[in-house]
Amino acid sequence: MKQSKTIFKTLKFVYCSSKRTVILIAIFTFLLGLIVPINTYIWSKFINVLFSSYESNVIPKLVFVLILIWCLWIVQMILQKANKYLKDMLTDHLNLKITESILNKQNGMTMSQFDNPKIYNKINKINTEGLSRSISVTNNLILLLQNIVSFIGTAVILVTYNPILLILLCFVFIPILAIDIKISTGLYEIYNERIEKLRLVTCLKDLMLRYENIKEIKIYNMGSFLLNRITDTYKKYLNQDKVIRKCNMKKQIWGEIGEYISKFCFTLYVIIDGITKQKDIGTIILYINTIDILMQNIGDIEFVLSEMYDDNLYMESVFDFLEEPMQHREGKKKLENINSIELKDIYFKYPNTEKYILENINLKLYKEKSYLLVGENGAGKTTLVKILCGLYEPTSGEIYINGENIKKYDLESYRKRIGVVFQDFIHFPLSVEDNIKLGNIDDYENDDSFNKMAELVGVDDIVNKLPEGYKTQLQNEWMDGTELSIGQWQKIAIARGLFSNGSVLIMDEPTASLDSLAENEIFQCIKTTLNKQISIIISHRYSMAQIVDKIIVISNNTIAEEGQFTELIRKGGKFYKYYSVQADRYKKGKYDE
User: Fold this and answer.
1) pTM passes above 0.85
2) SS3 348
3) What pLDDT does 593 receive?
4) 333-417+504-514+530-593 is classed CATH 3.40.50.300
5) Domain 2-322 adopts which CATH fold?
6) Residue 462's closest CA among 499, 514, 529?
């Protein structure tokens, strides 16, 4: 039942990718299937005419039949070429459809769904098998239709001779189909068992080929270790596959031996029966060819069904992923601006874990105010930012925007009001201009804002040294690509965050990869933008502590203290300890010089 549902879903999916192409393929395939029995029947007539050459006017009859056969050849050739063209076009349409469906689905999923390793296993199956299996299902459906049409047309000929033979022919292939289905099921179970380890191997291969990783791999001589890890996995599975394939091969050989024995018996029966009943030579050849074609049709149908069963096992993963619940929030209210954010009794733990990362968070943030989030590694600072960005919903507690519950607002309009510079920001393999303007797709053509932000952060100094200016392709992995330093990438990421022109600007370790001079430039840049929106900075460098309006200290997964710089220093609590340790280190460095 599940298999038939998957076949129907696949058919619908393929049909929706290009309706016109699918309909034309179905028509041409039907005609190709019809040509086979017609051609077989005409050839039998040709042989009968040939063996009656003693009759008068036999030459015109032979020529007429040959012209018919020639016409069939031409029609068959044209249909085959047209079908190949259409199948190639359908493959392209299908590739587009799968890519579009998967990426749209991915865009609509929540961050919490991506914390589940099973999602990555599904994505890996789709990436490695999705397109090829969809195409395989399509090709098999075409082959199935062609063989069914051919089978029906040819079966009509055999039924007029001996209907029992037709029934026996069909029964011969039932054991072969059962063997193939059992083999397919076993192979799919093995694939599922290996999927995570194979995904790790693929990840390691990609990691070894990334430009930014090559230097570290060479310095630490990791190449041989990683290569051995990859090849050991492949060799282990290679040895297992050798045993499995030998076993499957033996089963298939015995099944096909039974098929050939049956074919021999049926052919012998037709010859003996034809001679006994003194049938025309053309008629005997017609029935022999009919049995041969029917066995080929049934064999192809059996093969197609077993292949479709195999393909459907993999296609289930595609549809399981596409049927994952989409991100949904009831709120429809559009958000034009964010003047205040309040977090009330917020608790949070990641999916499938028991430990709370944030506990009892109560916080109010206001427009034209700046905040510095500090705390030890793993205290929950970045998690808090992710919740503020709407990437995660709190496990419990409420968030209020401008005094109203965030659930009343449309999530997309809320996110548009936020600009973020993550610590692990994306290095897009695009131009400098694209890397910055992707911060605000809706305002992509606003060159004035773009130029202002690029100049403010100091990106223009970087660009002046690049061959194509802002149009320069970044990353060495591409033709005419240019690689930037980590600090230069950091400036581009900050410019992207500023270009978003959001009501909230969040920067996670914005100067982590910058030298002292560049850090000072960014420091001055941030200083000029702090009071234009709600500004939140996460940093282990406390040089900004004296210019923000409030410092928030996260410790043991909750807010340990908050206040202005002088207030927290005077208090002598957590922040005083952090600041003193860093200040002493700088003083010691000065003294040592």
Assistant:
1) no
2) strand
3) 37
4) yes
5) ABC transporter transmembrane region fold (1.20.1560)
6) 514
